[in-house]
Specification:
alpha+beta, about 270 residues, two-stranded antiparallel ribbon, about 10% strand, Alpha-Beta Plaits, 3-methyladenine DNA Glycosylase II, Chain A, domain 3
């Protein structure tokens, strides 16, 4: 028996009524879904949405939350401090403060790279995988013997919307200040957390993150590494430098920008910002 013969044996009114019943059921379920969707819809918080639009969008988690959406929600609910986000520019933080009705003390900053190792840092293996710092870092922490060193594969470059940071001849990332808009996306992109913010008027910065002390151990990893000698701290006339974990830390509220530390550093790890 063919399909055509079966259909011809069915009463046309039966087919019509069946179709009408199905249409009616579809209409009822459609209306029901629309009503339930409206009743149980999660209302979007306009304040949260506005705050989110001013965050960097890096979703780095440095603020302690799962991402920018979670951080925006916490800010809107008064459970977080906008300065917990290191990737958002000071100007945007102040706008968020206005939205929240609070005063935000967020100074203007600029970006520096706390490493000048690159080609001067020894390799522990030859990497032949996908060209990205994050992927390389998954393989034993990266190719560099120094566990704190720049991997030089340009994750920061890929993240920068203005092409203001790239890996140059030295083999480590450097910032083009004329192009940099201080959005902080490179800060979030670096798996070694070597890209940092310093005050916009800072004159010098520490271009090394190696926490070892002693020339022999440091030089075994990188020819440009900080020796942890503390000479910069001893010579600073403003007492703006202290040694923490064998690395100099600059108190920019005290620093006069004289540059003595940079000129006297035996490893040339303290650099001028401009």
């Amino acid at each position: 028996m063919t399909l055509l013969s079966v259909l011809s044996a069915v009463d046309p009114m039966t087919i019509l009524w069946s179709a009408l019943v199905l249409l009616a059921l579809a209409a009822v379920f459609g209306i029901l879904l629309a009503v339930l969707g409206k009743k149980f819809a999660v209302k979007e918080n306009e304040k949260e949405k506005e705050i989110r639009s001013h965050l960097s969008g890096a979703n780095c988690g440095a603020c302690g939350y799962a991402g920018c959406d979670a951080f925006a929600k916490a800010l809107a609910e008064g459970k977080a401090d906008v300065n917990s986000c290191s990737a958002t520019a000071a100007s945007e933080k102040k706008i968020i403060g206005e939205i929240l009705g609070v005063s935000v003390d967020a100074a203007e900053t600029k970006i520096v790279v706390a490493c000048n190792g690159g080609n001067a840092a020894k390799d522990k293996y030859e990497y032949m995988g996908y060209g990205n710092c994050r992927s390389m870092e998954l393989l034993g922490g990266g190719r560099k013997v120094c566990p704190w060193g720049c991997l030089g594969m340009g994750s920061c470059t890929d993240a920068c919307p203005e092409h203001a940071i790239d890996v140059r001849d030295g083999g480590y990332a450097e910032v083009d200040r004329e192009k940099c808009i201080v959005c902080g996306k490179c800060v979030a992109a670096c798996p070694k957390k070597l890209i940092k913010r310093v005050p916009a008027d800072a004159k010098v910065y520490i271009a090394c993150s190696n926490c070892l002390r002693g020339g022999k151990e440091v030089k075994a990893m990188c020819a440009n590494g900080c020796l942890g000698c503390g000479l910069c701290a001893k010579l600073c006339p403003a007492h703006a430098i202290t040694m923490t974990d064998n690395l100099p830390v600059i108190d920019y509220s005290k620093c006069t920008g004289c540059g003595l530390c940079a000129s006297k550093c035996p490893a040339k790890c303290i650099k001028h910002c401009d």
